[in-house]
Amino acid sequence: MAQHYFDSDPGAASRPSTADLVLPDLHLRLHTDRGVFSPDKVDLGTRVLLETVPAPPADGHLLDLGCGYGPISLTMASRAPGARVVGVDVNARAVGLARRNAAEHRLDNARFAVVEAGGEPAPDQGAGDGAPSARDLLGPFDAVWSNPPIRVGKEVLHAMLRTWLGRLAPEGVAHLVVQRHLGADSLQKWLDTQGLPAERVASRAGFRVLAVRRSLP
C-alpha cells in the first residue's frame, strides 16, 4: 500500500537528511526524513507563504496547521519570540523531527503535537514528550499559518479546516498557501460559504496566499 506524508505512521524506511530554510531574516538547517512532506527541500509553497505573510502577533497564541518537520512553526517562533507557537500534524515522524529542530535551534516557544484527523491529540502523548497541553490545542489562536495538505481529499481537508479555523480568536487571521491548479480559487469560495471569509493577499509562482477570518454573529 502506498504511503503518504499525511499517514499517521508512514512505513517508508528512515533515510535522515537535512533541508535549509533560507529567508531574508532567517536561516535554519532542518532535519528531515523519508515519509514526511517535502523531505529534500523546503517546498516552494511554504517559502511563498513565509516570504509574504505579515509578522505574527508578538505575544500571541499561534498555530501551524500541518507542521511537517517545522519550517513554518519555527519561523513563527523566531519572528515572535514572546509568542506561544503550536505545530500540529497527523504524522508522528514529522512531529518528532519538528521537536528535534526546535530544540537544536533553541526555539523553546514552539511545541508540537501529533493529532488525530478530527483535531484531537493522539493517545499516549503527554506534555512531557514536548507536546503542548490539550488545552493549548483548543486555542483561541491569534494567527494560523498553514500549507494545508490539499491531497488528502476535499472531505478530510474541509473537516480539518472547519475544526482548526473555528479555533481562531475573534480578531485572529489565518494565512493559507494553496497551489492555483490544486484548487486555490475553489477553496476560497468554499471558505466563504463556511463563515470563514477569505481574501487573496498574494499570488506568486502558481500559489495563492489566502487571508481567512471568522465571520462573527
Explain how this protein is built.
With 217 residues, this protein is α/β, with parallel strands linked by helices. The protein has one domain (30-212): Rossmann fold (3-Layer(aba) Sandwich), CATH 3.40.50.150. 24% of the residues lie in helices and 28% in strands. It has five helices and nine strands. It has helices spanning 44-52, 71-79, 92-104, 154-165, 184-193, and strands at residues 17-23, 26-32, 61-65, 84-89, 110-114, 141-146, 168-179, 198-204, 207-212. A seven-stranded mixed sheet has the order 5-4-3-6-7-9-8, with helices on both faces. Strands 1-2 form a two-stranded antiparallel sheet. A hairpin with a 2-residue loop joins strand 1 and strand 2. It is globular, with a radius of gyration of 16 Å. The model is unreliable at 1-5 (pLDDT under 50).
Kindly summarize this structure in a few lines.
This protein has 217 residues and is of the alpha/beta class. It has five helices and nine strands; from the N terminus they run E-E-H-E-H-E-H-E-E-H-E-H-E-E. A hairpin with a 2-residue loop joins strand 8 and strand 9.
- CATH domain class: Alpha Beta
The CA-CA distance between the termini, in Å, is 46 Å
Number of strands: 9
Q: What is the 3D form? A: globular
Strand order of the largest sheet: 5-4-3-6-7-9-8
Radius of gyration: 16 Å
Share of helical residues: 10-25%
CATH architecture: 3-Layer(aba) Sandwich
User: Biggest sheet: strands, sense, closure?
Assistant: 7 strands, mixed
Strand proportion, as a percent range, falls in: 25-35%
CATH superfamily placement: Vaccinia Virus protein VP39
